[in-house]
Amino acid sequence: MRFLIIVLLISNSTFAQYWGGQEISESDLVPWVPKFEMEYQGSYHFGESEMETNLNLFFSGGFIIGQVENGSWVDDTNQWKSNYINLTNIKIDKTGKFSSDQHTGQFVHYKTENGALYKSLKIDNPWSSWIEDSKFEIGTKSELILKESYSGKYIEASYKKLQPAELHAMHPDDLQIMRNEIYARYGYIFIKNGKMDLYFRNQDWYKPEHKNVNNFLSDLERYNIGLIRSIE
After folding, report:
1. Rounded to whole angstroms, how far apart are CA atoms 182 and 204?
2. Which domains does the chain carry?
3. What Cα–Cα distance (Å) separates residue 201 from each residue in 55, 111, 128, 181, 210?
4. Are the C-beta atoms of 98 and 106 separated by less than 8 Å?
5. pLDDT tens, position by position, 160-210
């Protein structure tokens, strides 16, 4: 999946924001209110280099999922370790105001000097630790193709509200893989030489990184795990 990468530079000495090398003022931002709420679905790119993050926002079966993807380098291994932050109780009102338990903001168009408009999300209390002296941060939107954003055999378990009827038609062994695949996508380390460990270590996308990934799970994934387990 390709993302539109926009450089966002932050000055720690002022409250100014910089986008693509140009200072941003709030007068350059106008509310973005599309005809349909689904148009907000996408991947919003914040920051630059090692400090960049993506907020993946999508809707499914009554759920609004907002998940921040970031990571850091592990000093002793010099490897990149992924991290995920889930925003909870997300609400979007008719004026494009964004709110969650953790962060608030506004969907906006950013207007450049040449008149171009970029669909964006302005976060008022940013999660990025490197901009703690800043008033806000702008993330620019790119398309989020859910089927290309996940790895595995049963990727729908991470972006679609599953239905009991479709699960009842599956073999118990497949249900077990579907359920554990959700954990595996976050790099969960399974019991060494156990059934799931042997299975996922044969998948070229699997990267064991974390002993516990419970905090990474979205509300939708938690729902699907519970439903699969009840049928399994």
Report:
1. 15
2. 8-146 (no CATH), 150-231 (1.20.58.1690)
3. 28, 47, 33, 12, 14
4. yes
5. 999 999 999 999 999 999 999 999 999 999 999 999 999 999 999 999 999
pLDDT > 70: percent of the chain:
83
Q: What is the 3-state secondary structure (H, E, C) of 11-72?
A: CCCCCCEEECCEEECHHHEEECCCCCHHHHCEEEEECCHHHCEEEEEEEECCEEEEEEEEEE
Tracing tokens 């910089």 back to the chain, one arrives at 18
Cβ–Cβ contacts within 10 Å for residue 231, how many? 14
Whether the Cβ atoms of residue 153 and residue 181 lie closer than 8 Å to each other? yes
Q: What is the pTM of this model?
A: 0.83
pLDDT digits (tens, 9 = 90+) for 50-64: 678 899 999 999 999
CB atoms within 10 A of CB 62: 8
Distance CA 161, CA 207 (A): 25
Query: Which residues, other chains included, contact 64 with Cβ-Cβ below 8 Å and sequence gap of 6+?
Result: 57, 58, 90, 91, 92
Q: Which residue has the higher pLDDT, 111 or 129?
A: 111
CA angle 208, 219, 228 (to 5 degrees): 75
Residue 120 backbone class (left: φ over 0; alpha: ψ -120 to 50; beta: rest): beta
CB within 8 A of 2, min separation 6: which ones?
142
User: Looking at residue 170, what is its pLDDT?
Assistant: 96
